[in-house]
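Thread title: Can someone regenerate the structure for this chain?

I was given the following input by a collaborator and told the matching C-alpha cells would be attached. They weren't. Posting the sequence so someone can regenerate them.
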Amino acid sequence: MNVFYTCDNNYIWLMGISAISLFENNRHIPDLIVYLLGENINAENKGILCGIAQQYHRKIIVIDIPGLDIPETLVSKRWPLSAFTRLFAATLLPEEMDRALYLDCDTIICGDIGQIGGVDVAENIFWGVKDCVGSAYKENIGLKKQDVYINAGVLLINLKELRKVNVSTLMKQYMKKYGNRINYADQDILNGVFYGQIGLLHPKYDVMTIGAVHSYQEIQILRKPANYYTEEELRAAVLDPVIIHYTTNMRVIRPWYSNTNHPLAAEFRRYFDISPWNEKVLQDMVFSTKEARLIGLIQKLPRRISYRLLGLIHAQLKPYYIRLQAK
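Best answer:
Regenerated them for you:
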C-alpha cells in the first residue's frame, strides 16, 4: 500500500509523528511504503525519517519537488507550494503506481487503513470525506448546493486516471473563472476542477476538529452544511476514528501547542512521546489575528447567541463578501 505526504522542512516533525502513528497501527499491512513529496528537506531531516522507517522495517522515500506550474496568485504565506503538490501526485510519484493514499501532516492514524486499500477507485479520480461547507461557499466556486465537497486532507487518488489530465491547464482555466472566489485554496480547486470525478470515503477516515468539538446541532448553526453527514454517521466516526485530522476551528488550539484544548490531543501526544522530537519544547498558541480576536469576543456572549452570530458571519456574510469583492 502506498501512502504519501507533502510538506516543507518546517513541518517534517509533524509529518514524522503522523508516519509513526501510521506504522504503529498498521503493522499487519505488507509492503506499506511512505513517500514524502518534500520542499527543501535538509539532509538531517531526511536522516531522521530514514531512522523512523528502519525502526518499523518500512521505507520512507523522499522525493524533492521540482518546479511546478502553479498560478502565482495561489502561493502565499497561508498556502505554501507544498499545499498544492498533492494535485500533481500523478507526475511526481513512480509511474508504475496506480493509486496512493494522501495524508496531511496534521493527521494521526489511530486505526487500520487496510480497507481503504480495497476501495475500487475506477469510477473516480479522487476519494475523500465530506467537509462541513455551506451552500454559499459551494456556489462561489461553481458548485450547486447538493454537490459533493470533500476535505483535501485525506485523499485516495486514482493516479492512473489523474495522469490522463493536464492538471496545470485545468487549474488555470478554473482560476480564470473562479480565482477571485476561492476561500479554501487547493481544496476549492480540487472540488471545482474535478467535479463529477469525486467519490466518498467513510467519515471515520477523516475526523475533523469541528466534529470532535461541537454537537451536531451546533455544527448546523455554525456552518449550515449542505449535503453533509447525518448525526448518526458523524457521531459513529468521532467515537471510533481511524484517522484524526487536527483541522483549525475558531479558537480550538491544536495539540502541538503547550496550551492545547483539543479534545483529541492525547492521541497526538501519544506518538509525540515516542518520536525523535519528544524533547521538543512546545510553544503556547497566541491568537493574534483580527478574526481570532473577534471570535474570542463573540464567544464571551451567551452560548446560544454566540453560535448564531458566528454562524451568520461564517456561513453567510463571509462568502457573500468574497463574492462581492470578486466583482
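The radius of gyration is 19 Å.
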